[in-house]
Design goal:
binds aspartic acid, eight-stranded mixed sheet, 30 strands, binds adenosine-5'-diphosphate, single chain, binds magnesium ion, alpha/beta
């Protein structure tokens, strides 16, 4: 014998009700419990409040409610069945109108009257559902649970008197039997006190009705039919990666539901647990899903954590003072005074110093809690033994639940690590000694981020995601997007790294999409749906959105954008960039970048600022951390100069080659940045600073490759014209070299940084470079006889974007 409860959405439309009828016909459950049509309970409350405030619009709301129910009947039943249902619902609406007229006249809405008003939702829905069954040829009758469930007088949150209720159900409710007995369609949620007054079991209480009925009748199983595939590892509306659970224990279900997993109303578990009846959560809209079973002997989970839930809105109250230390009875008085004011405590945490106790209450209980404390601890507050309570509103509670956490070390470490990495601050913690639940209080704005971060840490074993916010879609940025689009599936399938581009900012427009921007036509999307670019807001969004591992990728050559990096770091957003302006800015700013990245634990990745995709910075870094000392770096750091010089043999003009380098994407937007050696000097400065040399750009000695007239040209075009005119100057350079290879070398040593044009013979690490090749030769204490050499193409969209992509993946894999 099975009891099946169908929730609000499962009776929310005629189509859903037909699906419900089909499910019961096929499976033959013996008792059906239903909620009000979805949204109706909320609407009844709102209508009653409107009436109480003497706002005449309550009548129109009541009309609309009546219309919705009448339409459902018209669609589901015909002939005499329809007429009967219509007249019964109409008479209920008449009764409700009288109640509301009274509310409006008295301008008062007590919880007693509100319960009566709410009861109409289920009283109407059962009539409709029973009619739909009869229309489908199944004999069914609607049953008012006020004749079955006897409760205390706690209106709005009534609790059954077990013995009386069990007796009433056993005597009054006949489950559908093989022959003759119609299928009872029972109102969920509502009950009556011993004196016959209508009361409700608390919002979401229809689940509870099903368990109470199932327990009284000794059902073999209680089924809860809802709108999702059972209980998921987290609320699917907040955690897109949540997955359905096959089974869980009663206590786990209790903890998850108590801390916000709305899919099952917390008190539902107790009657089932007492009688050892399994509860199965099923999906009306996907009946082939086998269900999540809550039972005593739930299979142990593959993970130590079974699920994660949250309460979005709570207030954290802290009571503290020297007068609490070592004094017995404080906690008793504190929680006693709360109980007297009917304040429900959601979570408690007390420091072992006993100097403070903090606890969470619902926002609506906050004033009552403060009043209770003021009254109870008046004398202590007056003489300073206990301070005025401190309240932090806008808090959320996240609960991590699982039997498997018992005696398993490292669980809280993992929770806090994942929160810390994502910049979520934890204000209070509670873990019961049952080790079944770790509850954390965080800022409400961090709720979804915390849920997703913890979910990823426990369930997506090994999978890491990274959320890219890209600024600048020129050669490097554009290529990066192309590479991500091409390689994403392999990364996710073979390496468990998921890269999502959540934001793109171009010079005029930017677009942020929490779910990810489709990369096939990002340009059209940003243009069509983007908003005017505001990079501060862009960086802030990366920190604020509920996504783990956010990384701000600066693909501009801007001087200003790096000023936003510290702001990103402080919001726990990593920064990855090929923009040299940041690390080659003032020494003070360089220090600030390093410090904020380190202090906030947010990775800063700038491998591509020197040698593009070549492993220059990482090699240098590895040498230094492993205790080597850098004696000298001899390098060719300009892809553009390298490309032009290695091709310049007099057959084509110097200007022509520079133009070609620009077209190939080797140059900075203004090629003078490369040819004046400013760009190479910045790279040298970055390497020198990485070695610990405290230098400013002005300390670098640069012998420019360009004559001053080229540098002074007012525009890029004018510069090219001047370059043509200066062809003889460049000719003279190669003639002077007499066939030896000419290189533009940077030297970094104890004396500082020098850049100049020189010749290189065979054996010189800078000899024989081709095209855009860069080379960096490290002479160190360990590599003293022969230098360690990193060499390869050091410019170009593909290699730079590739290096940047690798940096981004490093953020995801926590390799930094
Ligand atoms: P019903 O009206 O059928 O009682 P509810 O709206 O009360 O349905 O409960 C189902 C909803 O609970 C789901 O739509 C889902 O958004 C929410 N929910 C919260 N946490 C969870 C969870 N861990 N698993 C499944 N659903 C959850
Ligand atoms: N209709 C009631 C509510 O909305 C009970 C339920 O749906 O479980 O709270
Ligand atoms: Mg519910």
């Amino acid at each position: 014998m099975k009891v099946a409860k169908f929730g609000g959405t499962s009776v929310g439309s005629p189509k859903a009700i037909r699906a419900l009828v089909g499910i019961v016909r096929e499976r033959g459950q013996s008792v059906v419990v239903v909620s009000a049509l979805s949204g109706v309970t909320d609407e009844l409350i709102a209508t009653a409040r409107t009436a109480a405030s003497r706002d005449a619009s309550w009548e129109a709301r009541l009309e609309a409610l009546g219309l919705r129910h009448a339409q459902a009947i018209a669609e589901l039943a015909s002939g005499a069945k329809r007429a009967e249902a219509e007249s019964r619902v109409a008479s209920l609406l008449g009764e409700l109108r009288e109640v509301l007229t009274g509310v409006s006249a008295l301008r008062e809405l007590s919880s007693r009257v509100l319960d009566l008003v709410m009861s109409f939702g289920e009283r109407m829905s059962t009539i409709i559902v029973a009619a739909a069954f009869r229309e489908a040829g199944v004999d069914a009758i609607d049953v008012d649970a006020r004749g079955l469930i006897v409760v205390d007088g706690d209106f709005g949150n009534a609790r059954p008197l077990r013995e009386k209720t069990d007796k009433a159900i056993r005597e009054g409710l006949k489950p559908r039997a093989a022959k003759g007995v119609p299928l009872p369609i029972v109102t969920g949620f509502i009950a009556a006190t011993e004196s016959g007054e209508t009361a409700t079991l608390g919002r979401g209480g229809s689940d509870f009705t099903a368990a109470i009925v199932g327990a009284a009748l000794g059902a073999q199983e209680v089924e809860i039919w809802t709108d999702v595939d059972g209980i998921l590892s987290a609320d699917p509306r907040k955690v897109p990666d949540a997955f359905s659970l096959d089974s869980l224990g009663y206590e786990e279900a209790m903890e998850l539901s108590h801390f916000g997993a709305k899919v099952i109303y917390p008190p539902t578990i107790q009657p089932a647990l007492d009688r050892g009846i399994p509860i199965r959560i099923l999906n009306t809209f996907n009946p082939s899903f086998g269900g999540t079973v809550i039972s005593e002997d739930a299979a142990s989970s593959a993970y130590p954590v079974r699920g994660i839930s949250s309460i979005s809105s709570t207030a954290l109250v802290r009571v503290q003072g020297p007068g609490m230390v070592g004094v017995t009875g404080i906690a008793m008085r504190l929680f006693g005074c709360m109980a007297r004011r009917r304040v429900n405590i959601i979570l408690i945490s007390q420091a072992s110093s006993e100097r403070s106790i903090c606890f969470c209450v619902s926002p609506q209980d906050r004033e009552a809690a403060l009043a209770a404390i003021a009254e109870e601890f008046g004398p202590e507050t007056a003489d300073g033994r206990i301070g005025a309570p401190i309240v932090e509103a806008d808090k959320a509670i996240v609960a991590v639940v699982g039997e498997g956490m018992k005696h398993t070390p490292g669980i809280s470490g993992k929770v806090f690590h994942s929160l810390g990495r994502n910049g979520v601050n934890v204000s209070a913690i509670a873990q019961g000694s049952s080790e079944l639940n770790i509850s954390l209080v965080v800022d409400s704005k961090d709720e979804a981020k915390a849920l997703n971060a913890v979910h990823e840490a426990f369930f997506l074993s090994g999978t890491r995601s990274v959320n890219v916010f890209l600024a600048g879609t020129g050669v490097v940025g554009g290529t990066l997007l192309k590479q991500i689009a091409e390689h994403r599936t392999v990364l996710s399938d073979d390496y468990s790294v998921r890269v999502k581009v959540a934001g793109i900012a171009r010079s005029k427009k930017m677009l942020i999409r929490e779910g990810g921007i489709p990369l096939e036509d990002w340009k059209t999307l940003v243009e069509a749906e983007g908003v005017p670019t505001d990079l501060e807001a862009f960086v802030d969004a990366a920190g604020e959105l509920a996504m783990p591992n956010a990384v701000f990728v600066d693909c501009t050559a801007s001087d200003d954008i790096p000023r936003l990096y510290p702001r990103a770091f402080r919001e726990s957003t990593a920064v990855a960039t090929p923009n040299k302006r940041a690390n080659a800015g003032s020494l003070d700013f360089y220090r600030e970048l390093m410090r904020t990245s380190r202090d906030s634990g947010s990775p800063y990745l700038y491998e591509t600022t020197a040698g593009a995709g070549l492993p220059v910075i990482s090699t240098l870094h590895d040498l230094i951390v492993s205790g080597d000392r850098i004696v000298r770096i001899e390098a060719m750091l300009s892809g553009t100069i390298g490309y032009v010089m290695s091709s310049y043999d007099g057959s084509r003009s110097f200007a022509d080659l520079v133009r070609e380098a620009k077209e190939l994407g080797y140059t900075e937007p203004d090629p003078r940045d490369d040819l004046s050696a400013a760009d190479a000097a910045r790279k040298a400065l970055i390497l020198a600073r990485e070695c610990g040399r405290e230098l400013e750009f002005a300390d670098i000695s640069i012998e420019s490759l360009l004559p001053p007239s080229c540098i002074a040209a007012p525009s890029v075009e004018a510069f090219f014209e001047e370059l043509e005119r200066q062809e003889p100057y460049f000719r003279a350079l190669i003639e002077k070299a007499k066939g030896a290879s000419l290189v533009y070398a940077a030297t970094i040593d104890d004396e500082g940084i020098r850049l100049k044009l020189r010749t290189a013979a065979i054996g010189d690490p800078l000899f024989g470079l081709r095209g855009p090749e860069n080379v960096v030769a490290f002479t160190t204490e360990r590599y003293s006889k022969l230098p360690l050499i990193v060499r390869g193409p050091g410019a170009g969209g593909e290699v730079t974007a590739g290096g940047l992509f690798a940096d981004i993946v490093r953020v995801a894999k926590s390799l930094v």
